[in-house]
Amino acid sequence: MSNEHIVSSFDEELRALHKSIMQMGGLVEAQIAQSLQAMNKRDSQLASAVVANDGQVDALHHEIDEQVVRMLALRQPMASDLRTVVASLRIATDLERIGDYAANIAKRTLALNVSPTVKPAAGVLRMGKIVQSIVNDVLDAYADRNADRAAAIRERDTEVDELYTSLFRELLTYMMEDPRNITACTHVLFMSKNLERMGDHATNIAETIYYIVRGKVPAEERAKGDLSSVTAMTEKGETFVAADSKGN
């Protein structure tokens, strides 16, 4: 009976752990949505609320951490149960980081709101909507334990990376054209980087879901589309990528 629970209370603890992860995911989804809305509407009050609410996400992360440690110590789970318990801790950590990035976007919104609007900010909002959709999908895949859906989500990270690289180039151009744009564009650049990192953590969660269901990590190497680290501006004001298509 290696995969059957002989202690009903352990089943209840597993359900409680699942419920905590979903609750944390819901809070993080709200944080992302509100940070994007605050940026789009230049709403400083909402941005401040997002920053203040980050503590709720952190508190739930600590609670899940304690749940996992208690279950490992008292239940000593095996096989799929062990994967589920350990994976829950990984997912909670990734969600906590996504929440942190949403709060960072809100903090920079507060700074950006005292500067003139810059055009690339619209691109950040478009990127944010994609990341929001990916986080929503990955939480659905977790709820359904759907490995195929998780694998499909993993492939979407390239879309986020490529959009980030495109925004990076656009922001470089804006800053070169007029140094007065540097402050605002720098905040927008960090916001877009926060979103790119959210995509990475959502992809981590997708890989963890795949591991829970299949008992192994995806065989294919994760695709990379972020070329910002090897992108430069020439003396003629043209962007230059010092790497091949894989960013090597």
Automatic annotation (TrEMBL):
<protein>
    <recommendedName>
        <fullName>Phosphate-specific transport system accessory protein PhoU</fullName>
    </recommendedName>
</protein>
<feature type="domain" description="PhoU">
    <location>
        <begin position="21"/>
        <end position="109"/>
    </location>
</feature>
<dbReference type="Pfam" id="PF01895">
    <property type="entry name" value="PhoU"/>
</dbReference>
<dbReference type="InterPro" id="IPR038078">
    <property type="entry name" value="PhoU-like_sf"/>
</dbReference>
<keyword id="KW-0592">Phosphate transport</keyword>
<dbReference type="GO" id="GO:0005737">
    <property type="term" value="C:cytoplasm"/>
</dbReference>
<comment type="subunit">
    <text>Homodimer.</text>
</comment>
<feature type="domain" description="PhoU">
    <location>
        <begin position="124"/>
        <end position="208"/>
    </location>
</feature>
<dbReference type="InterPro" id="IPR026022">
    <property type="entry name" value="PhoU_dom"/>
</dbReference>
<comment type="function">
    <text>Plays a role in the regulation of phosphate uptake.</text>
</comment>
<comment type="similarity">
    <text>Belongs to the PhoU family.</text>
</comment>
<dbReference type="GO" id="GO:0045936">
    <property type="term" value="P:negative regulation of phosphate metabolic process"/>
</dbReference>
<dbReference type="InterPro" id="IPR028366">
    <property type="entry name" value="PhoU"/>
</dbReference>
<dbReference type="GO" id="GO:0006817">
    <property type="term" value="P:phosphate ion transport"/>
</dbReference>
<keyword id="KW-0813">Transport</keyword>
<keyword id="KW-0963">Cytoplasm</keyword>
<dbReference type="GO" id="GO:0030643">
    <property type="term" value="P:intracellular phosphate ion homeostasis"/>
</dbReference>
